[in-house]
Predict the structure of glycosyltransferase.
Amino acid sequence: MKKAELVFIPAPGMSHLVSIVEVAKLLVDRDERHSTTFLIMKLCFYSKIDSFIDSMSATNIHFRFIDMPGDEPDLNHPDNSLFSFVPKNPTSKKKSLSWLV
């Protein structure tokens, strides 16, 4: 049997992470050959994400969570938004994804 690796990159934020984890649970329940990797872009003001990740990692052997390095945006700056840090620092993100090849 061949295994399938699913990779999800949820938007930064608890609600996006929880939603995509629920989708991944459904997929794994349908076919246990799936394993799922979540590439996480954390922001310092979302402190509950770590405990959620720890809980999901402990209860599901098919899930792997990888922190994506990145710069935190200055949300007080008018040119920045929550998602402005996503395209920054592509070299570090490329290194984080090198295991996919």
User: Anything to note?
Assistant: The longest helix spans residues 14-30.
